[in-house]
Design brief:
Polbeta, Aminoglycoside 6-adenylyltransferase, 264 residues, NT_sf, 6-stranded mixed β-sheet, 10 helices, alpha+beta
């Protein structure tokens, strides 16, 4: 795949840079879960004192693959270059030090003559912490509450968006129940890490998640949440208030659904 070709060429260039101590992949390539459409998340570990000089040379290294049609220099978790090539491959090049490296995903080492990366090899990197799990559960309840207000107000665009927020949080929570060590990845990991029936249920919800039929979507969300409710609220991080709020919001929409079925 072109990803491997790009990585090989860029890494060969980076190896010649005296500032580079280690080179590794994170993201889907780092987990060996990539496909022909995946981005490349490439990391260089350097000494702090070499950083400024190295940053000025990043574009030269990236051009070792082929012509770049879009280039941006940003900082989110570390100095990062976004490069899009003329074959539409997207490469992110991150620059980290031992002090700034965040050990929150699995990685594949490509170059590490000092064996620096061995200290970061651990399990469970993509498992939600207790606090993260509770926050996502609370977000599900909160965005259902916001959906209720938007729907009753007749703001169908915003109501639909609140359901999207709900499902984004739900994806992290439900992954925790079925493939815990992918639960930090959220919605993009659902298709490969949930049982087929759950994936189909989520796809069906998204089919209804639009301004003209969001009322159907929320009923399906409530039903899906009810299927998973027992193990979600039994997690020791989910306090009584969060349990009660979630059950109340799910129950509200289930009651509406039962009323519609009775009236129908």
């Amino acid at each position: 795949m072109r990803q491997e070709i790009a990585v090989d060429k860029i890494v060969e260039s980076l190896k010649e840079d005296p500032a580079v101590r280690s080179i590794f992949l994170k993201g889907s390539m780092g987990r060996n879960e990539h496909d022909s459409h995946s981005d490349v998340d490439l990391y260089c570990l350097i000494h702090e004192q070499d950083k400024e000089n190295f940053l000025s040379r990043r574009s030269t290294h990236l051009k070792a693959y082929r012509d770049i049609i879009f280039y941006d220099d940003i900082f989110i978790i570390a100095p990062q270059v976004i490069a899009v090539y003329d074959d539409y491959l997207h490469v992110d090049l991150f620059t980290v030090t031992e002090e700034t490296f965040q050990n929150k995903d699995y990685f594949t080492v490509l170059y590490d003559p000092e064996n620096l990366m061995e200290q970061y090899i651990t399990d469970g990197k993509l498992t939600l912490s207790d606090t993260e799990f509770k926050d996502y559960v609370m977000d599900i309840a909160w965005f259902l509450f916001q959906y209720k207000k938007a729907s009753e107000r007749g703001n169908h665009l915003w109501a639909t968006e609140m359901l999207r927020y709900t499902m984004s949080s739900f994806s992290n929570v439900v992954l925790y129940g079925y493939e815990k060590d992918r639960s930090r990845l959220g919605l993009k990991a659902v298709i490969n890490h949930l049982p087929l029936d759950k994936v189909e249920s989520i796809k069906d919800i998204y089919e209804s998640m639009n301004p003209s039929s969001h009322e159907k979507a929320v009923m399906k969300i409530a039903a899906l949440l009810n299927e998973e409710m027992e193990w979600i609220i039994s997690h020791n991080a989910v306090d009584h208030q969060t349990q009660s709020f979630l059950k109340r919001m799910v129950g509200h929409f289930e009651n509406i659904c039962r009323g519609e079925l009775t009236n129908g």
